[in-house]
Amino acid sequence: MTETTYAKGLEGVVAAESEICRIDGEQGRLYYLGYSIQDLARYSDFEETTYLLLYGKLPNRGEIESFSKRMRISRDLAPEILDMVRNFPKEAHPMELLQSVVSYLSGYVQHKIQHSATCNCRDTLHQVVQLASVVAAWQRFHEGKDYIPPRQDLSHGANFLYMMRGEEPDEYEGKVMDTCLVMHAEHGFNASTFTARVVASTLSTCYCSISAAIGSLYGSLHGGANERVITMVEKIGGKDKAAAWVNQALDNKRKVMGMGHRVYKAKDPRAIIMEEFLLELSKRKNDTSSYDILKEVEKTFRERMEEKGKSIYPNVDFFSGGVYNLLGIPKILFTPIFAMSRVAGWLAHILEQRRDNRIYRPKSLYVGRDAREYVPLEKR
Amino acid sequence: MTETTYAKGLEGVVAAESEICRIDGEQGRLYYLGYSIQDLARYSDFEETTYLLLYGKLPNRGEIESFSKRMRISRDLAPEILDMVRNFPKEAHPMELLQSVVSYLSGYVQHKIQHSATCNCRDTLHQVVQLASVVAAWQRFHEGKDYIPPRQDLSHGANFLYMMRGEEPDEYEGKVMDTCLVMHAEHGFNASTFTARVVASTLSTCYCSISAAIGSLYGSLHGGANERVITMVEKIGGKDKAAAWVNQALDNKRKVMGMGHRVYKAKDPRAIIMEEFLLELSKRKNDTSSYDILKEVEKTFRERMEEKGKSIYPNVDFFSGGVYNLLGIPKILFTPIFAMSRVAGWLAHILEQRRDNRIYRPKSLYVGRDAREYVPLEKR
After folding, report:
1. Which residue in A353, A306, A325, A173 sits closest to A234, CA to CA?
2. Which residues contact B84 (CB under 8 A, 6 or more apart)?
3. pLDDT at position A4, please?
4. pLDDT at A221 over 90
5. Does residue A117 carry a pLDDT above 80?
6. Considering only CB atoms, which chain A residues are within 8 Å of B65?
7. What is the pLDDT of residues A131-185, one digit of tens each?
8. In this complex, is the C-beta atom of B355 within 8 Å of any C-beta atom belonging to chain A?
9. Which of A109, A233, B121, B282 is the one with CA 20 to 30 A from B267?
């Protein structure tokens, strides 16, 4: 390639090779290390999927038992971390807290391991596990309630719901929560994963890299789509108003949230599973209001697009907010939950980056002014 | 450009246009917004340079008075932040603490300002100012001493030394410290600045972006060069042993730290100023031991390179560690001090990124395996 390829936003540039994630947007397929997201959602759980991402293979019984145990004993938060969560200003966003806590946690791990560039992130699973505990604790304190210590007999997703609510979720809720974490654990290169890799490429620690990635995910161009879908559902207010709302939005060239995807031209496979969860949960909770509104939005939107010869499907964010809502999770936690899940993928990318590292060092093109004389203060 | 330019580490790719920094490596010149680093080092100070970087021009008297006042009243640390510093595990690195504190600080600013993607980082100078206070406080606690509240009548550099030592530095020391901050405030695209821009490109906050950049700077391929120079000086132990040490290092193809620069082919202009500081401070403190060793290293190294027809100069890191040492600053603070200074440049780049934003979204090339069947646990 030439010395001076200019690619604003790095568009069209391949920055690295990767073995972790394959997205087949035409066919609507997503694979982690070759395993389809449908299979992982149905048969796996978040702990096993994390193992798969970090080791590149499915664990045998001994491996998953030891890995799962390491994750579960790391769930409880140290008193200093609880203080950070408790003292964090009420009006601030939990994503900022998460970013802060992950950096701070790095002080608590064995430093001989952690400070080496070749540190095995797989030994210190704090940063994977404790995100969930911090999010749950933040919500408890935010509601003026006490911290609920973790339980070791629950899955990662079920334990999160338990720590947040203070009571054990039923089996189906636990499965849904855990599977949502599986489905968001990895999705190839995107701004947060790229951020994690850029930081890792300086041979910084996995904590520093993940903290940085959380900062990226907080950006409104990256995370937050499912939050905006629920805001839309709230604005619409009822199934009977959905068609008119969508028509008006499209007439006024406003964006309908959660429809279409930059990569998936066929239906996002995660959206299919998420829709099933939303329907089943809605039935079990006798509250189909969000589901009904969403389906009406989808129907109207797709009809309007088909008139233009376009086939556009809802994406995973279209249904996930409704699922989280029915699990009792407030909107402000949607992006933190994304981080709780994606941290597994970030770690996988950090490890991959280290295996064949080159520091990311693009150039900039100087378009500023020529040299000028310094003018003393009294002459300005 | 083609759709599939592969540029490992983004080498040779121009990722953005920038007006902030010009480096003329051939001539050994460095400019911030058109002003030479020599002029800024001689006539400006860290507060004025920060203003220049954030506003693109030198301030008039009214502007600098109000800006400087805003910076100085932000120096003191909140009790919760002091707790974070105090509770941070002793064996952990202050860079991790800095990264954590910057994210945490974002909870303390007016959120209507801060959470908007167009937030004016220039109003909330916490993240610039408080880094210095956190570094000083960390050092105090690390030595088992009390926090020293800041003074508003000192320059940014002098106040840092005051908060770290508990006594006021003399005028020359204050000027040297402040000028070191001026000289490290900006240096174009590099991994940490690029990280700040990647995070900013998601429309995340300036705090999140700077926190991420700190994580990058902590990487051993990025920050830490001056720390390694001082370690080398300590290993050499005396002027009379320097020539032999360098010869042996070169014979064994070991790297001599602080010599040469990826960008500067002529002498790094900051190295010239830093060398003057080191010589003058050494005389004033009656301790020329580091200076003598360094000059002997330089002489031997340059002679050996000249034999091969190469002209390689010492860079800024070659002398800065010695300067910091004579100011009473321990090695572990060298990279945190780099962050205290570079934060001004990071902010300038965040603002520039926002003015003409496109999210950084490079691609990856999938080189992993084909789809495979999920194997149940009992069959693995």
Report:
1. A325
2. A84, A104, B97, B100, B101, B104
3. 66
4. no
5. no
6. none
7. 999 999 999 999 999 999 999 999 999 999 999 999 999 999 999 999 999 999 9
8. no
9. B282
Residue A270 clears pLDDT 90, i.e. is over it: yes
For residue A226, pLDDT beyond 80: yes
Q: Which residues of B are catalytic?
A: 261, 317
Coil, helix or strand at residue A171 = helix
Q: Which amino acid is at B321?
A: G
Catalytic (active site) residue A184: no
Residue A362 contacts residue B188 (beta carbons within 8 Å): no
CA distance readout (Å), A5 to A10, A347, A365, B12, B362 = 10, 30, 10, 7, 13
| Beta carbon pairs, A and B, within 8 Å | 401
Between positions 293 and 322 of B, the ones with CB within 8 A of A are none
Question: Is A324 in the B-facing interface, judged by CB distances under 8 Å?
Answer: no
Whole-number pLDDT of residue B80: 92
| Closest alpha carbon within chain B to A108 | B89
Q: Which of A10, A102, A364 sits opposite B189 (nearest CB)?
A: A364
Burial A169-193 (b: 16+ CB within 10 A, else e): beeebbbbbbbbbbbbbbbbbbbbb
**Is A38 part of the contact surface with chain B (CB cutoff 8 Å)?**
no
CB A92 within 8 A of CB B106: yes
- pLDDT at position B252 is 96
Closest chain B residue to the Cα of A211, Cα to Cα: B212
Query: Which residue among B7, B22, B216 places its CB closest to the CB of A13?
Result: B7
Instruction: Give the ranges where B56-93 is alpha helix by DSSP (H).
Output: 61-73, 79-87
Q: What is the rounded average pLDDT for all residues in chain A?
A: 93
The pLDDT of residue A16 is above 60: yes
Distance CA B372, CA A32 (A): 10
Residues A10, B111: C-beta atoms closer than 8 Å: no
Q: With a cut of 50, list the residues of chain B below it in pLDDT.
A: 1-2, 112-116
Residues A77 and A108: beta-carbon distance below 8 Å: no
pLDDT for the residue numbered B90:
86
The C-alpha angle with vertex A109 and arms to A104 and A112, in degrees rounded to 5, equals: 120
- Selecting from B6, B190, B219 the residue whose C-beta is nearest the C-beta of A204 gives B219
Cross-chain Cβ contact A15/B364 below 8 Å: yes
Chain-centroid distance of CA A91 in Å reads 22
Please tell me which of the candidates B58, B108, B219 has its beta carbon nearest to residue A199.
B219
**Interface pTM (ipTM) of the complex?**
0.94
User: Average of pLDDT values for A238-248?
Assistant: 97
Q: Which residue of A has its CA nearest to B369?
A: A34
Quote the tokens at residue A190.
């995107």
